[in-house]
Structures are given as C-alpha cells and as structure tokens.
Amino acid sequence: MADFAVKARKLGKKYRLYDRPGDRLRELLSFGRASYHHAFWALQDFDLEVRQGECIGVVGANGAGKSTLLKLLAGKLRPTTGECAVNGRVSSILELGTGFHPHLTGRQNARINALFMGQRPWQIEERVAKILEFAGIGEHADQPLATYSWGMQARLAFAALTTLDPELLLLDEALATGDAQFAAKCNAFLRQLCRSGCTTLVASHDFGFLATTCDRIVWIDKGRKRADGPPLEALASYMDALGQDTTGAASRPVNVLLRIEASEPAAQPTFLIHAFEWIDHAERVMSGCYVGEQDKWNALVDLAPKLGFTTESARAGWARAGEMFHNCLNRSCTPGSTQQGAAYVALPVPAAPWPLPTKLRVTMRKIEPCDAVFSLQVDGSYQEVGRAGRAGTDGEDWVRADLDVTAAFERSKVAATAGTGATP
Amino acid sequence: MMTRLAQGLAGVLTPLLGPSRAEGAVARAYAVIYLVYYYVSAQYARALLGIAWLILTPILFIAVYVPILTHVFHGELPGATGPYDYSLFIVAGFLPWVAFSDGLVQGAASLAGSLTVVRNATMPPSVLTTIRVLPAFASLVVGVVIFVLVLAGLGRFPGVRLILFPLSALLLFGFTLGLAWLTASLALFVRDVLQFIPTLLLIEFFACPIVYHPSRAPGMLGKVIEWNPVTPFLALFRASLAPTAEFAWLDLGLASAWTAGALVLGVFVFRRLEGHFGDAV
Prior knowledge:
Chain A is of the alpha+beta class and 424 residues long. Chain A is built from eleven helices and 18 strands.
C-alpha cells in the first residue's frame, strides 16, 4: 500500500459563471464557437501531499477554495488542470443530513442516510442504533423530522457521520453542531477519529480544534496555497493576514472582557461554567469554548496573541486572560474570592470577515446561592448584558444565559468612530 | 429477514463477481427497494389513511372513469361486444400513461430536486433517478391488479393474455427510465427542461391513442399516432388487459426498439454529463 493518502499536483478548478441563465444555453448551442461565461478559478496550481494517518486542517476565508479542494479530492468535481490521486476508501461529509426527508421519522432518515452513504444492508440496523444513540434524541426518534427543532436535526445529521468507517475522511465545516454539550461531544468524536489513524482533511473556522488536533494546517487564499505547516505557525500567518483585512476590522473589538459577579455581593457564590459561545444574527454558533477540552485551551493560551486573547492584564491583579478562561471552565468560579469581587474572562471576538456576534451564550450550572450578573467591557467601561438565575444543586440543572451583546458592540463602534475606543 | 436474504444473495453472487462487487450490487438493489418504499411512504405520510391511498387511488379512479365513460360518453369502439368495453379499453391505456408521465416527471426532477444527495451521497446519481421513477410503476402494478379484479367482476377476465402485462410493464419502465436519465442529467444544466416536460406530456397525451381508438384519428393525426413512441406500449397493455384489443408482434417489436433506443440515449448522455454534475450543483 502506498504511504500517501492524497497526492495533488498543479491542481486547478475553473468554474464558468453566467450573467443570465440563457447564456449557458446560447453557449451550448454555439457548439464552442462563442463564449458567454466568465471564468472563475476557485483553485490554482495547488500541490498537496498527505501521508496515511495524517490529520490536515484547511483554513481560509469564505470562497477561498476550501470546499472546492475537498470536492475535487472526493471526486465530486473534475479538475480543470493538474491531477489528484487518492489512496483508500473515501468518505466525504461536505454537507450534513444527506437525503433527509421532513416527512419521515428520525429513525427512517437515519436509515436513508446510511443507505445513501453506501452502507451494507446487514450493517444498517446496527448503524441506525448507533446513530440514534449518538444523537441522543430519545423518544423523538420515531417522530417525523419536520417536528424536530433545528438543533435536533443537526444532532441527527452529525450522528449519521459517526457510523462511517473511512480510510480517508473529508469534512467540510461539519464540526460542532447542536448545543454546548453536543458540540463538545462532536469535537471529542472527531478528535478521537483523527487520532485513530484515519487520514482526515477538515475545513473549519474552529481554530481551537484545528490547533490541537491537526498535524498540519493548509491555508488557502483566493484559490492558492498560502501556508502549509505546523498548526500554530500556519494559523498565526492566517490570523496576521486577517488582521490586515480592513473590511470593518478597525471598528470592531479584538477581544472583550466578561465580568461575572454575584447579584448579592456578600453571598460568596459558586458558578460552574461549562461553555462560552458566540452566536450570530441567525442563531448559529460562531465559535465556542467548551469544558473537557483541557489541551485545547492550553494550546489556545499559547496562540492567544494571534487569536485576540488579552494575555497581559491592563489592571493589577488580573491573571493572564487565557488562564482565567481556563480556570472558569469546569471549575468552581467564585467571584467573591477574586480581586475586586468578580471573575473576569477574556473572550476573543470572531475576527473580520465574520460578522459581529449578536449574543454571548454562557452555559453553567450550580449557581448558588444567588444570581450571576454578567457585564461586558468593550470600550473601557462595563455594561450589564444579562443575568442567569440560580439553578438546582443536584448537578443536572443547567442554565443557559443568552447575553445580548449588540448594544455593547454598537457602543464600541461609536467610540471607535469618535477615536476614543480603548480596551485595557 | 431482508438483510439475511441480502447477505445470502451476496454470498451466491460472490463467486461470479468477487466479494466487493457482489456486496456492492446487492447493497444497491437493497437500497433501491427501501428508498422506493420510504419515498412512497413519505408521499402519504401526512395523510390519515397513509399508504392505503396507493390502493384507494386506482380504485377511485376506476370507480369514476368506468361508469362515466360507459354511461355519459358512449364512445364507439370497433369490435365492442359489451357495454363496458369502451371504458375498459380507455382505462387499460390510461393506467400505463399515468405511470409513464408520473415516472418521467419525477425522474427528470430527481437530480435537480436533490442537490445535497447529488453532492454528497456515495450512491451513484443514476440510482437516484431510478428510485424516483419506480414508485409510479409500483402504483401501476397496484392499479392493474385492481383493474383485473374489476374485469373479472364484469365477466371480462383477460385470462392467459395477462402474461403480456409484466413484459409490457418492464418495457415501459425501461423506456421511461431511459428518458428520465436523459432529461434528469440535462435538467441539471438547463432547468428549462423541467418546464418543458409537462407541456410536452400534454401534447403527447392527445397525440397518442389514450382517450380514443387509433382508428378514430383523422388524417394527419393517424400518421402521428402510428409513429408515436408511446403507441406500441399502449397497444401492448391493451392486448394484455382490454377485452377488445389484440396482440400484434409489430407492437412488441416497436416497443422493444423504442425502449432500447431510450436506454442507449439516456445512458450515453448521463455518462457523458455525470462527471460535470459537480459543476452544475
């Protein structure tokens, strides 16, 4: 068996773009005598060699050529130039939920997905059971998919990929779906898959996952390879380039500070924080930090300057933001015991060209004996963005606080425009 | 049960095809059967009577058409000997027409309407088209079974001529599938194909002898009917089901030739375009 899993040489893909639908027909009818399209090179002169068992992360802005690369390797597209060879049984997850039908039940859809993905008939029932178990949708398994929430559909869709048994797995932005707990489960599954010797190419914007899971990162920019190397170096180059991007970047904060206080200052409360997630205007999770991913956060602390973490506190008594972040995850966070009676967490804001988040979702439990008050500091002063009520003490009662950060970011924009914006 | 059968079949085919190809072929056939079942189920999923509509629809169809055609329209049919012969002749042509037109419409839209499957599925796109054509023919089989029961009730049971039905259905399925492969692959690049098909089917409905006897077609229409590709299929179905129709070898030959032609053209165009599907979706 060859030691390479993927070998691409001078790979290129040109799309034909038509201004009007009729232009395609006119071109067809001209039998090559006339051209009515604009050429768009999604990928050009792309060389790549992946060894068996390697895990490769692919990063780049939207439209940079990541999906085109994965589709070419999956054989879904034919290259315009160059060639690529793939060695091994390929499974590609370019979109979740292949073949799902809204009128069929979760169980039937799981079976359909398994059939479409080429599973053998005698393996189907076992795989369907595994899919439903991973999805954790319980009694809803026999209800029509149309009755599911978006999160439940995403759970089922992701669970369907967990039963694949590939030698080469191609994943296109299929990471971390559903709520915080399920997203952590998805990330843990993919991390284990990557480490089990399965050759993996994964396109994602989840830098934490890529930094801690991949052997190499390939950065694609406007169809060309800009970097191919160790994760932290490649990601740093990419983030440097994003920092130079002026599309709205100047007027947005790189990071913000979240202050967590007790609603009753003398109460000495304990909060156990599970996750922080940025949510966009369409209620999608843009990026998140989850419990149980210790190595991920250690790596993020190293990567902190490039990702926008505040590594040095502007005020005396503040710990390194990365460490504080780490301290808050899966640990009792006792604001009353820290300096100034509050806990502080530095949160990197998704960089341009991503949109500004509209919400910060905090998932926590064991809030006792009083409420948690969250304030966001974007432009020098703190603004209260929400509260989380106390929950039960049995360890199973979760509280999810969706903090509306729109107003805080708007203030930051105004301050930046007026030239007074400053973060500590 | 089905999975054990599939495993057994794969074992039987292994010496002929090798283990990988045998398993692949059986898996594909199994997938087709199950997916057809699921798509038919999904079609009736929100109905109170569910999949029972698969049987109820042809019953209602025959229950409405036969009395109306017999007592209201009084159509004339050469060689008719009973009061119901005209209506039975029409229904015997209508059932395959519905299967053909439904199968073609669904099959043509099979790829353009399932882009995520075309983009992601391991299963070849040609199977997706087959899955969309098959339910129409499942309905045809159900409809014909009910029609034969009605014929028996009216004392016009076709007898040994019924053996022509599976052959006619198979030929019409091949013809429809060939055209579906052709149109489905073209529709991915030129969506107008999907707009043309209903109009062409409407013209075709009147240009072939579905609601009239071929001998009633005047002048030029008679010539059109003679060379219409659907005509020999209708003749074959009527020869197997309608009391007044007779079997002709010419119809069998023409139907076979049209089927072979449609399949060759469909497979050729589909294979030529398949590699470019990714560009279109």
